[in-house]
């Protein structure tokens, strides 16, 4: 069952990766693919970073969130941090290169956003038990102290 969910999520990423227009998919519910057998591969290294553009930032947040969830599903199926990193890297490079073949702009920079999503998941995976294990208790004269939770 976990493998099915993992594969279904990869298929979900494939549709978002290869549809000709992400905005048509999200707003007009149109799924259209246009394969280009000779894409401009040099565009993979083009940097289109634009922090002032809210649409750009929303799209990149989508990259991070998608790969955060991919990291979670991967870890659920194979509980290994290394596997999460390798799947994040592999899926990141694959989706960005596939975009070049489907009339989209695949970027190396976007692979970075993708991997950041996987790394944020790993950070949460490692950090949550550490944060949860310490609780604040009231000490002498109303001061707050950290105490290890032993439950």
Question: How would you sum up this structure, described in words?
Answer:
This protein has 5 helices and 2 strands. It is mainly α. It has one domain. A two-stranded antiparallel ribbon has the order 1-2. Helix 3 crosses helix 4 (81-101) and helix 4 runs antiparallel to helix 5 (108-132).
Radius of gyration: 20 Å
Unreliable stretches covering 5 or more consecutive residues: none
Number of beta strands: 2
Structural class based on helices, strands and sheet pairing: mainly alpha
Strand content: 5-15%
Helix content: 55-70%
Distance between the termini: 32 Å
Provide the succession of SSEs.
HHHHHEE
Overall domain count = 1
Largest sheet: spatial strand order: 1-2
Number of helices: 5
Q: Which shape, going by the Cα principal axes?
A: globular
The overall pLDDT, averaged over residues, is 86
Biggest sheet details = 2 strands, antiparallel
Ordered list of secondary-structure elements with their pairings:
Elements: H1 2-18, H2 22-28, H3 54-77, H4 81-101, H5 108-132, E1 134-138, E2 144-148
Antiparallel strand pairs: 1-2
């Amino acid at each position: 069952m976990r493998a099915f969910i993992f594969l279904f999520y990869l298929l979900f990423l494939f549709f978002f990766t290869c549809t000709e227009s992400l905005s048509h998919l999200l707003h007009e519910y149109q799924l259209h693919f246009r394969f280009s057998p000779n894409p401009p591969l040099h565009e993979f290294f083009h940097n289109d970073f634009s922090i002032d553009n809210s649409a750009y930032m929303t799209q990149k947040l989508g990259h991070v969130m998608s790969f955060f969830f991919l990291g979670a599903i991967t870890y659920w199926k194979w509980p290994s941090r290394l596997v999460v990193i390798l799947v994040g890297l592999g899926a990141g490079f694959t989706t960005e290169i596939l975009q070049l073949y489907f009339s989209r702009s695949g970027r190396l920079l976007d692979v970075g956003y993708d991997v950041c999503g996987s790394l944020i998941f790993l950070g949460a995976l490692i950090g949550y038990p550490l944060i949860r294990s310490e609780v604040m208790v009231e000490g002498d004269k109303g001061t707050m102290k950290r105490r290890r939770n032993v439950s």
